[in-house]
Amino acid sequence: MAQITFNVNGEKRQVDVDPNTPLLWVLRDELGLTGTKFGCGIAQCGACTIHIDGVPQRACVTPIEAVSDSQVTTIEAIDGAEAKAVQAAWVEIDVPQCGYCQSGQVMAAVALLRENKDPTDEDIDNAMSGNICRCATYVRIRQAIKNASATLKG
Ligand code: FES
Ligand code: FES
Hints:
Number of helices: 5
Oligomer: single chain
Bound molecules: FE2/S2 (inorganic) cluster
Number of strands: 5
Largest sheet: 5 strands, mixed
Helix content: 25-40%
Strand content: 15-25%
Structural class: alpha+beta
Shape: globular
Radius of gyration: 15 Å
Strand order of the largest sheet: 2-1-5-3-4
């Protein structure tokens, strides 16, 4: 066990855990941030997508010690023009079915639109390919990203 300090959602937090503990479990079990989901645990589904220094990453395979100098952002605190546009588009299109994958999908979509406000279908497919949806909401996800893109372009 070790005391590890890291920044999550703009706040400095300290946890007493094994340094190899995956960030996902620290978020969910130590900090109660349960919006980030466990799907596969082996970086294959995207359900656990969070941002580390603005870059989408898999919290299930990120040891907590690796983020001690980083800014972690979860679905609970994602903010800014892209996040607002994505959230509004998700509601407008009514994207989720069971919802389980959706926080990861939103985190990936926001990261895409921060990099590229006008993504093509191919850009969207490339950016979202690591985020699996067992309910196959892919068509609605793509449309929602396009709607969010239109909002951002004004
Ligand atoms: S739970 Fe992390 S990628 Fe599946
Ligand atoms: S909405 Fe059910 S897994 Fe994606």
